[in-house]
Design brief:
It is a single chain. The chain is mainly β. Helix content is 11%, strand content 37%. It has 1 helix and 12 strands; from the N terminus they run αββββββββββββ. The strands form 4 sheets. A 5-stranded antiparallel sheet has the order 1-2-9-6-7, with no helix packed on it. It has a 3-stranded antiparallel sheet with strand order 8-3-12, with no helix packed on it. Strands 4-11 form a two-stranded antiparallel sheet.
């Protein structure tokens, strides 16, 4: 019985050796794509910034906002170059107000909005109401921070009493 088993094992090696010498090789290329994409590793969206009072004890515009002046997203990334646009509208009363003494009072407060993200920085003035734009040269990742600062009125006029609102809009679009 051992002799028969040994012969079967030997025959199996012979068949394997013959089959191996008759093989041929082929390869296939494998391809895929990764679409350009931008997102935050921290879910959520920007909240409102509570700038607090715009004026000091004399009713003159404060030189700085006293409340929350920035919003940050940690781990914001684009896996490709990106086009970035930052816009800022002036602070205006949320409900209509009348400004009769336009030499002394105003219903408009301008400011600077700035973006800092990895090696990208961008700044826009609400007074121009024109967007600031840039295109990154590479993929980026890091904390993205938008800040508002430097409130100002034309001719240093006092803002009239009201609740003021504005919008800072940041658009980041990956470039294919």
């Amino acid at each position: 019985m051992r002799t028969d088993l040994l012969c079967l094992v030997a025959a199996g090696f012979c068949v394997t050796a013959g089959a191996a010498s008759a093989q041929s090789a082929a390869s296939a290329n494998i391809q895929t794509t990764v679409a350009p994409y931008c997102a935050s590793l921290e879910p959520g969206s920007p909240s409102s910034l509570a700038l607090d009072s715009l004026v000091g004890p004399t009713g003159q515009l404060s030189s700085d906002f006293s409340g929350t002046t920035s919003y940050s997203l940690t781990g914001y990334y684009c896996n490709a170059r990106a086009e970035i646009t930052l816009t800022a509208s002036p602070l205006r009363p949320s409900a209509p107000v009348t400004v009769s003494d336009v030499a002394s009072f105003t219903d408009r407060v301008d400011y600077t909005a700035a973006l800092a993200w990895d090696d990208v920085s961008l700044e826009v003035l609400s007074a121009t109401e024109s967007p600031a734009q840039t295109t990154t040269s590479e993929a980026n990742i890091g904390t993205l921070t938008v800040t508002v600062s430097a409130p100002i009125t034309a001719n240093n006029r006092r803002p009239v009493a009201a609740t003021y609102e504005a919008a800072v809009t940041l658009t980041i679009a990956p470039v294919a």
